[in-house]
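Chapter summary example.
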Amino acid sequence: MQPVREDGTRGAGQDGRRNGHGQAPYGNGRAYRVGSHALEPAAGGRRADVANAGERRVGWALRWLPATLIVVGALFYWATPEGLTSSPFFESAPLVAAGLLSLRATVVTAVTAVVVDVLLEVGNGTADYSESIIEMISQCVIGGLAIGMNVLIQRNYRRLTSARHVAVAAQRAVLPNPPDGFGTLRVAARYQAADADARIGGDLYAVQEGPHGVRCIVGDVRGKGLEAVESVAVVIGAFREAAEEEAGLAGLARRLERALQRQETGRSGLDRVEGFTTAVLAEVDREGGALRLLNRGHPAPVLLGPDGAGRTLQPHEHALPLGMGDLGTWPDEVMEVAFPPGAVLVLFTDGVTEARNKAGVFYDPLTRLDGQVFDGPHEVLDTLLADVTRYTGGRVADDMALFALARSRAPLGVPPAPPTSEHAP
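The structure predicted for these 425 residues follows.
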């Protein structure tokens, strides 16, 4: 594994073929994970079915909770001596319904609670008592408040649903589904947000086939929110353009650097001076079996050999992230290693390496993947995501973007050749 100082003039392969129909490389990719929801069935389907069944049972129980409170309140009224009031049960029923049920169900619950309360007082002959009158008036007021709360909750829910749909659309636009592969290369990607309702953040990945081979990027933009999404779009757009034009990874990194600097000129405050993106650029010859990496301040990827033996591809000299070129310039280090059939390159963001268990120990993807043999890149990423979730007990603190490249022995869509016999005619 020898580091190479590259000046941007060196290329890797001259095969300029695009995908099968000359289209952009994101036309027919597989769906990938967004937050805690999958756009297609992923590994662990049985566990997901069990969890969904449990959620349905809990939801059914909650829907019947307001009616249960009214029934319990009525039983409490008849089973307890005078001086003990059942009004807390009747008053809480519409409030619970406001947060769990529809507007119609909330109105029915509020009216039913008042009617049952009045009937109990009339049947007991205490409807004209001042305490009973105050309780019934209080019940009517709380029922009206519950109906108003339900209207606000439903309105906010519709707004949240609309925002989530917009977030999903933005996720698919900025991070489209990657293709299944190029030639003998298989591709897989996963994106999982730390917050189940947050579908997009500052993590990114992209892959592009061009005249210099198959190139990919995995990165992490500083910050959160819309400005981070804007930087993700800038980086991916610049990458797709430069990946086909630049002869080397160093030139590609410089193009990304300039794109981020142009974006920062329109910003002010802290984001202008501290905006940066950590990234790993990778380049694979489609047929030559060579893998080249350039790391700009990003967690080092893991390379799994055909026998499952893993190693971390750490650069000899650490470079500053993209967007911090004003602090200094120096030649980028491009690492070149062999990438034989059966090998898998696993790239990820710091949401993986900074995940912690209950004892506060950081997650180490190398020790968890080393020695395992997988059928393909999708199995690698599904296993890694499930293992991180188990390791953290489900308490993932940061978004995670994962990307894998695997070299197979047969091109995509071509079945493996049958074994030959020495005695065949």
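To summarize the output: Residues 166 and 177 are 17 Å apart (CA to CA).
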